[in-house]
Amino acid sequence: MYQAMTDKQLIKSVPDGSILTPKGFQCGGVHAGLRYTKLDLGMIVSEIPASCAAVYTTSHFQAAPLVVTQQSIAKENVLRAIVVNSACANACTGEQGYQDALKMRSLAAAKMGIPEHQVAVASTGVIGEFMQMEKIESGIENLVIGKSADNAEYFQTAILTTDTVMKSCCYSARIDGITVSIGGAAKGSGMIHPNMATMLGFLTTDANISSEHLTAALKDVTNITFNQITVDGDTSTNDMVLVMANGAAGNQPLDPNHPEWGIFVDLLKESSASLAKQIAKDGEGATKLIEISVSGAMSEEEARVVGKQIAGSNLVKTAVYGADANWGRIIGAIGQSGASINPNTVDISLGEITMLKNSTPVAFDEDHAREYLMNDKVEIFVDLHLGEGKGMAWGCDLSYDYVKINASYRT
Amino acid sequence: MYQAMTDKQLIKSVPDGSILTPKGFQCGGVHAGLRYTKLDLGMIVSEIPASCAAVYTTSHFQAAPLVVTQQSIAKENVLRAIVVNSACANACTGEQGYQDALKMRSLAAAKMGIPEHQVAVASTGVIGEFMQMEKIESGIENLVIGKSADNAEYFQTAILTTDTVMKSCCYSARIDGITVSIGGAAKGSGMIHPNMATMLGFLTTDANISSEHLTAALKDVTNITFNQITVDGDTSTNDMVLVMANGAAGNQPLDPNHPEWGIFVDLLKESSASLAKQIAKDGEGATKLIEISVSGAMSEEEARVVGKQIAGSNLVKTAVYGADANWGRIIGAIGQSGASINPNTVDISLGEITMLKNSTPVAFDEDHAREYLMNDKVEIFVDLHLGEGKGMAWGCDLSYDYVKINASYRT
Q1: pTM of the model
Q2: Distance CA A104, CA A82 (A)
Q3: Contact B77, B67 (CB under 8 A)
Q4: Domain A2-277: top CATH class
Q5: Where in chain B is the domain with CATH 3.10.20.340?
Q6: Tell me, what's the ipTM?
Q7: CA A147, CA A220: separation in Å to the nearest integer?
Q8: Residue of B126, B227, B331 to mutate, testing the A interface (most A Cβ within 10 Å of its Cβ)
Q9: Of A87, A375, B41, B128, which residue is 20 to 30 A from A11 by alpha carbon distance?
Q10: Helix or strand run (H / E) with residue A138
Q11: Which helix (H) or strand (E) holds B182?
Q12: Which residues does A150 contact at the CB level (< 8 Å), separation at least 6?
């Protein structure tokens, strides 16, 4: 299981930490007018050129800002800034959308006096509408970049659409005897305004690491964190996670041969898992975070597949919403997951309450189970008793408010 | 598209037809007491040995009755009867459940005076509870089998769980100058009582066809009909579609070389599609049937994958419920379907209202679109402009009642 892989004593949570805790980063957020009152445009800047790594939505319809960001990174594998707007996803907007994303990049580069290809662009909001470029332009002009806690909060707010809470995290560890930090900010899944394109995650770190190794670490970590959350099974056109590593901490360059490589990967994992869980918990209409731990699978990948199938089951999600200890629905999800299963060796527990042992029902106290399911975090444990594969997934319950939020008319 | 493959002039709907319309079939239903008042046990009998074909859930946790049915068919590829109960799925019930399914088969065989291996068994209801065998026994004893319209209705009712309507169909065609009929009965997707194991479909036909060719035809037809519906993406442990063909019509044996083989396959297709659509329309909490037609895909399979992804999207389903012409969500579903897509050549229409042409938004009248989405059948057309592949899928909207039904406590 994920937690077991991290030696918690080596990874410290930094209270009140943010994307500005790692050395050498600044940020800000402003109201550009894309939305009525909320901040809607933000930027993170590294004071020195940073290594970088990104993962993008697997949707065939990648939005224009993702295309531009990939072009930026492809040039030199170095970033100095990330500029982000909410309200408009700039997706399915054709050549005009692409030109708008390029323009947004060049405006941000000009403001900071840095090369265009060192700027990444991200957008989140309604699909199929064009960017209001005059607002983007004046927004970037008015943006104030700084290092205070307020600046971090402005950025965290500017990237939200209708999320109900800001999502941020900060963790540190000692590497080469030096404190290395990762800070994160994310938005996602509180898509009260339909048509939103969903998840964005930004991580800053002062670790000294090349883009090549950072990219490899981010891919591995994303597979077991961001890719293991689901709110409604729908993949957006704008999903992106982006890390900038500026090396300001001064550690020896990190690569898989560095004796503390594992600590850095765990640090990245802890940060990503924290943001991922915050997104799942703030899922549309959600009242509870559901955490699924699968063990005994043929491989880690199969364990994750089973976990995500359970997390994505509407029937499991509604049962958790209704506090109904309906393990038959968990069996249903496991059975259709496509992973290797021995139908006679499955154990299922809700929290500490065992419901199924060797695929045979175990009598349990329904009231006790119902009470457990009233918690705002519900843990489901599945042991397939087939192999050594372990994995986790996170989701949320499916409530009336999910339907309300998503059935409401766009205007 | 599916409709285009059937020459409607050759396939006739039989008004008031049922599983008893094909020659040589009888059936009945009875209240065995597994449920409070509703009929809960039924049987279809062929007066003469029938060829047969069946398709089963792909869940790893196949329920005991499915195991027993496969054993029956494996022996001789001949069936005389299908015995079905609702209320209890007899799934995840281990060795006891298997013995109970065998017992149910032998009781039905004894009643009809036929070999055990010519009886198929099906169950639908709560997962993880044991069968009340004394009730099954007295139920089978009290069952009255006959040929009247009442008998058909008793059977159609007995297999329902908490579906809101009976599902049946009957179509006929001329083969070798003789009228050949297929009748069908199904239950599914009105799973008001959680933990239900979901879809059962039974087809009778008086066509003369071997089990081998019937099986091949059923597999092909199932892939484009029953397998193309989705209510909530959850696959049950008890899904089964079963056909008995007793040859009483007297046509020449049907095989792919028979000049009218295509007509028989279309007859089977029309029957299966009718039941499949009735199930989708009666999905839990559904207020509307959603029919998706995909064209221009690289293959028929990819067209079906795209269609089913759209049908299964919670975001599309809630938008249809809310009458919101939110085509961005359709794009989202297409983009993540895994099928080959050119992101620049996609057309999307809702009914006759074009919303996207060559992946570029087309201005449309929102009020007109909203009005269209108020219909109880909503058609979504997608053209990928990549190849010749066409396919369809069916689903339903996602309403407050879906959550209500599935969040309610089991007892």
Answers
A1: 0.79
A2: 11
A3: no
A4: alpha beta
A5: 289-407
A6: 0.75
A7: 30
A8: B331
A9: A375
A10: helix A133-142
A11: strand B178-187
A12: none
